[in-house]
Specification:
Distance between the termini: 18 Å
Oligomer: single chain
Radius of gyration: 23 Å
Strand content: 15-25%
Bound molecules: iron/sulfur cluster
Structural class: alpha+beta
Length: 493
């Protein structure tokens, strides 16, 4: 691995996105002569889950080969020289998003360690909610940590386990952990996939000829022409080796709590999650939103790109025409010249511009997927009004985000969330709209095919809307209202 230059500034550094950000995607191939090339392609398809760094570890004839770097998949795995190093019929990969300050090579995955029983690489999507306390006890026992990632805790727990086989060591390690994890691991003889008992983060199994594939999303199976076999079940460990594939379920069965926000925003719309096409769910959320919060208007305008499917559903249900009143610049890229203070306020137009000819004198319904701090919404609404819109009504395809996520999604602290600071009327005034409405939790559940949110037994994680966290939050210290664990999270993955 070469030295990594300081990353170039990105638009997000100056124009913080007002969306929760996905943190990671994982991918693995067992039993194909082009395993690393296929993994690089899979990571391309998962790029939306993390754009800060990417890595692949491959295995061949007793040796592990790795390439990890900061930057996009296309930049990291673009040369023949890099790909030629990654030989073997087994490979796993990872794309990572980190918050500011955490972009360090030592935190780029897959993480690799040499054990007495051989090497092991792990790629992780999720976040452990007892990472701090487990890490502390491991440090007290003499473990030396190389990174700030909670994933390294799994490595140390596997290393210090008293069990003999790698699978038993892994089970022993996972039983000590709380939180969300979808893992793909690679040893000298096996590829292992794991989903936490609640199944908070996604992981699917695919097949390409004789090769078996593990991936965060089905869109990465499509890119390599692999067939979708099934979702890895919550609490399931898939072990793939030369004898074939076996499934182990070592945890006590519990109710699934898949992250419902994967449907709202994180996943790619062409992916299928838990049997549901993500684009179809997003459109249906728009339908529910239109039923719940109708308003007279001339046009439905999505905030591109993520607001498009819900806006289509809203327009279909309401009978109000859909139009692209905001155009997104897809070529902003990740690098950007730091703007001076004088022109920083123009920043939103780097990404979005109002389509003035369509907006002038119109009553506009703007559809977006979420409001986190509200900063981007203010600018978008200003832009639409400046283009001549007569009225601006905002409709949001998620319930108000009033709680932080501790399961691998980068959200600000609770007190910075607009929905935590203000009621609906104040939020509408703050972002400058004539009316504001969010889909209800029941509406969201209906969109995923449930009769509504069963408050006694919710079948999804929806904690960022409801504060009903499905695991213990051991690291959360309320003394100053700031989750201590977030310090670790912002430096991890
Ligand atoms: Fe998903 Fe929200 Fe739960 Fe985090 S808290 S896992 S974003 S539903």
């Amino acid at each position: 691995m070469s030295d990594i230059p300081t990353p170039a500034p990105s638009p997000e550094d100056f124009l913080p996105s007002d969306r929760p950000r996905e943190e990671c995607g994982v991918f693995g191939v067992y039993g194909h002569k082009d395993s690393a090339q296929l993994t690089a392609l899979g990571l391309h398809a998962l790029q939306h889950r993390g754009q800060e760094a990417a890595g692949i570890v491959a295995y061949d004839k007793g040796h592990f080969f790795t390439h990890r770097a900061l930057g996009l998949v296309g930049d990291t795995f673009s040369t023949q020289a890099v790909m030629d190093q990654l030989v073997g019929e087994v490979a796993i990969g990872h794309v990572r998003y980190s918050t500011t300050g955490g972009t360090l090579l030592r935190n780029v995955q897959p993480i690799f360690a040499d054990f007495a029983f051989g090497g092991m690489a792990i790629a992780h999507n999720g976040n452990l909610t007892n990472a701090r306390s487990v890490r502390k006890s491991l440090v007290n026992r003499g473990c030396l940590f190389q990174s700030t990632m909670d994933t390294e805790i799994i490595i140390h727990l596997v290393a210090t386990s008293l069990y003999s086989t790698v699978v038993d060591r892994m089970i022993d390690a996972l039983r000590q952990l709380e939180g969300a994890y979808s893992l793909v691991a690679l040893t000298r003889k096996k590829m292992i996939g794991v989903r936490d008992p609640l199944g908070v983060r996604p992981l699917v199994l695919g097949r390409l000829g004789e090769a078996l594939i593990l991936s965060s999303e089905t869109c990465a199976l499509d890119i390599i022409g692999a067939e979708y076999v099934r979702d890895v079940e919550p609490g399931e460990i898939i072990v793939i080796d030369e004898t074939g594939m076996r499934s182990i379920k070592p945890f006590a069965p519990t109710k699934q709590r898949f992250c419902i926000f994967e449907y709202v925003y994180f996943a790619r719309p062409d992916s299928v999650m838990e049997g549901l096409n993500v684009y179809g769910v997003r459109k249906q959320i728009g339908v529910e939103l239109a039923r719940e919060s109708h308003v007279e208007a001339d046009m439905v305008v999505p905030v591109p790109d993520s607001g498009v499917p819900a806006a289509l559903g809203y327009a279909e249900e309401s009978g109000i025409p859909f139009d692209l009143g905001i155009i997104r610049n897809h070529y902003v890229g990740r690098t950007f010249i730091e703007p001076s203070d004088q022109i920083r306020h123009l920043g939103v137009r780097l990404k979005h511009n109002a389509n003035g000819a369509y907006l002038a004198n119109k009553r506009v319904i703007l559809v977006d997927d979420s409001i986190v701090r509200g900063t981007t919404s203010i600018k978008i609404v200003e832009m639409v009004r400046a283009a001549g819109a007569k009225e601006v009504h905002m409709r949001i395809s998620s319930p108000p985000t009033s709680n932080s996520c501790y399961y691998g999604i980068d959200t600000p602290e609770k007190e910075k969330l607009l929905a935590c600071r203000m009621d609906l009327k104040a939020m509408a005034e703050y972002i400058g709209v004539d009316s504001l409405a969010f889909v209800s939790p029941d509406g969201l559940y209906r969109a995923v095919g449930e009769p509504g949110r069963n408050a006694e037994k919710p079948c999804y994680c929806d904690a960022c809307f409801t504060s009903d966290y499905p695991t213990k939050l051991t690291d959360l210290k309320d003394s100053n209202g700031m989750p201590e664990q977030l310090t670790l999270l912002t430096e991890s993955r």
